[in-house]
Structure formats: structure tokens, C-alpha cells
Amino acid sequence: MAQLEWSDALNLDLPLMDETHREFVELLAAVDGADDAQLFTAWQALVDHTDQHFGQEDAWMASTRFASGNCHSMQHRVVLQVMREGTARAQQGDLKVLRVMASELALWFPQHAQSMDAALALHLRNVGFDPATGVVHAPQALPGELIHGCGGATCSDSASETQGAGAETRHEATA
Question: Residue 94 carries which DSSP code?
């Protein structure tokens, strides 16, 4: 099984986000190290945390002008849905699916954190967003229109206008 350990490469210089990500990595490690008797409980703790984790980031995006259907939030919904499907299969006795999913999450998470979450963290810093209070200290820096991409330079609305629609399609195919 692919294992994931916290490293400086996952640090996004946004303390509340980094703390949440560190907890995700720890809970994923608990799933990885769980024996069959403890696996479902460890998995459910990971799913519950991930639901809160993604909900928190989605709320931050909503507060800072991300459209609800942006690719970052969409990825959150899809990953959480798959995790819940794993829960349902484990409840029917298929524990192996949880081990496979945990291994896939260990591969997926660094890419997600270093691309979509890094773009979100930069956006939040640029608008002076305080994740603890929800206050935007630089409202003049908020985008005039809703952000429909992931917030990164390669998939934002302005990037697709300057690079052509093909660039956004290629990014979404790899996200």
C-alpha cells in the first residue's frame, strides 16, 4: 500500500489548512496501519474528517468568490462520494476496498494539495482571508466575477481566455 507522510512539500503556509491537511495524513496513516478489526473504525474517522475538511475549504471558496461548481469543489464532492461508497462496501464485508482506496488517496492527496489547495491558499492570502474568523481583510482584492476554475493560473477563467479553451480541457482531464 502506498503510504503518505507529512512533509514540507505539503505545507501551504496557511496554518489552519496545514493543520487540517496534517490531520488528514495522520488519519490516512491510521487506516494504513489498522488491522482488519480496526479498519472500518479508522476509515470512518477519515471519512468524517474529510467531510469536514472539504466542507471547510468549500466554505472558504464560497466566501471569496469561487463559484459552487468550480473544479476544486467538484473534486471534493467526487472524492468524498467515492469514500462513502467504500464505506458502504465495507459494511457489506468488503474491507479490501478500503485498503485500495487508502492507497489511492495517498497518491492523490499530494497532487491535490500542491495544485488546487496551493492555489486556494494563495488566493486566500491575496484577499487577506482569515480562515479562523472568515473575515476578508482586503475585499478590494476579491475577484469581480466568480471563479469557475480551480483558482490556479492554468485553469482560471482568465487563463482559459488567454490560452484557449483547450488548455482548461487538458487540465481538467488530468485533475
Answer: -
Residue whose C-alpha cell is 481538467: 172
Distance from the Cα of residue 134 to its chain's centroid: 19
Place of cell 472524492: 79
Joined grid coordinates for residue 55: 466542507
**pLDDT by residue (tens digit) across 81-99?**
999 999 999 999 999 999 9
Per-residue confidence band for 162, with pLDDT thresholds at 50, 70 and 90: very low
Torsion of Cα atoms, 150 then 11 then 55 then 153, to 10°: -10
Q: What is the DSSP letter of 129?
A: E
With 0-12 CB in 10 A as exposed, 13-18 as middle and 19+ as buried, what is 132? Answer: exposed
Query: C-alpha cell of 52?
Result: 469536514
Taking the C-alpha atoms of residue 73 and residue 67, their distance in angstroms, rounded to an integer, is 9
Contact 31, 39 (CB under 8 A): yes
Task: Cell 488530468: give the residue.
Answer: 174
Beta bridge partners of 153: none
CA R_g for the chain: 17
E-state strands within the chain: 129-130, 135-136
